[in-house]
Amino acid sequence: MTRDLVDIKKAFSYIVDISKPEVVASTSDGFSRYVPKLQKNILQLYSDKATMNTAMGANSFGSRTLAILDGNGVSKSVKECKKLGLPIVILAKNYSTKDCVQIYVSSLQELTDTALQSFSIAENKDILLPVELVIDPELSNTNEVVDLPQKTTVKNLLPNYRPDHITLNPKKPECLNTVEHNGSSVFDDEKIFSIISAVAKDFKKKVGIDLGNGITESYDVKGSSKVIVTYGTLFRKIKQHLNENKIKDYSVIRVRCINPFPKDHVAELCSNFDSVIVVEKKDLSFFSQVKQSLKDKKIDKLNYKGYEDLLKLK
Fold first, then answer.
1. CA distances for 118 relative to 129, 141, 225, 246, 291, angstroms
2. 140: left (phi over 0), alpha (psi -120 to 50) or beta
3. Is the peptide bond before 260 cis (omega within 30 degrees of 0)?
C-alpha cells in the first residue's frame, strides 16, 4: 500500500493505471498526463454521447472498458448497455440513468477503491451490467491523501476480462442493436446486492480496506432516537456537524448503492428509530425511495443547499 496526495484527475489516472482497462473513452480532459504509458489506450472524445458509443463498441469486441463522463444525457446508450449485457464501468460527475448499477462515492479514497471493485461487479457473469460511480461535483475541487493498493494486489482481484456472451467478430457479422443478452433486461436486486457485498468482502481480505457490505454505511450514536438517511459527501458533512456541535440525538445512514435501491436494508437499519429525516441535495427520487422502504414511519425531508441547512439539525 502506498499513500499519495491526489486530486480527481490523478485519481482517475490511478484507476486507469492499476485496473488496466484495454480501452478508456473519456470526455474529461487532462488526466491522461499522469499515465503517459497508457495514452494509446485513452480516447479523448468531444461529448459524453460519443464517449459512451465508443465504449460500447470497444466492449462489444471483448475489451475491458472504462468510460469517464463530464455530465449526463447518455441514458439511451446506457439502456443499450443494459440490454446487451455490456459491463462498462462509468465514472460520472452527475447522475444519468437508472439502467445501470449506481453507487454514490463520498471521497476520492472511496472513488479509487470502488472503481477497482466495480469491474468485478460489472463483469460478474451472473449480472453483466454497466456500473456507474456517481461523483459529487465538489470532489472535482478536492485534494485528498489516499491509500493506493499495489498493482500486484489488484491483479489478484481483477482477472483478465474474457466475455463469452457477446463478442463481435468480423468473420461473423452481427447488428449490435439486435443482439440481446438474456437476463440483463431486468434487475435481480438481491443477486446484485449479494455480488456487491461479496466483492467488498474480497477487497477487504486482499487489500485491507473495509467498505462494509458495499451497500450501506452506518454511523451509530448510542441512545439516539432519530436517524438521518443520506448519500454521497453529505454523509461526511452531517457526521462532522453532529460531532462538532456535540449533537447526540441522531445516528446517520448512508446509502451507497442508489440503484437498485436497497429497500430492505434501509428498512432494517431504520427499524429501531422513532423518526427518520432524509437529507438530499436535489431530486433524485431518493426521498421517495426511502419513503417506500419505510411505509409505517413518519419521514421528514431536508433539502441541502448549503451548510446553513445543517443547522436545522439540533
1. 10, 23, 35, 36, 28
2. alpha
3. yes
Which tens digits make up the pLDDT trace of 219-241?
887 888 889 999 988 898 899 88
> How remote is the C-alpha of 150 from its chain's centroid?
21
- Tell me the torsion sign for CA atoms 213, 218, 219, 222: negative
Q: Is the pLDDT of residue 139 over 60?
A: yes
Q: Which of 267, 264, 265, 291 is nearest to 277 (CA)?
A: 291
How far apart CA 180 and CA 194 sit, in angstroms, is 24
Strands 23-26 and 216-219: unpaired
In this prediction, residue 182 has a pLDDT band, given cuts at 50, 70 and 90, of very low
The domains found in the chain, sorted by start residue, are 2-207 (3.40.50.970), 216-312 (3.40.50.920)
Q: Phi, psi (5° rounding) for residue 58?
A: -65, -45
Long-range contacts of 241-245, Cβ-Cβ distance < 8 Å, separation of 24 or more: 241/307, 241/310, 241/313, 242/313
Cα distance between residue 108 and residue 287, in whole Å: 25
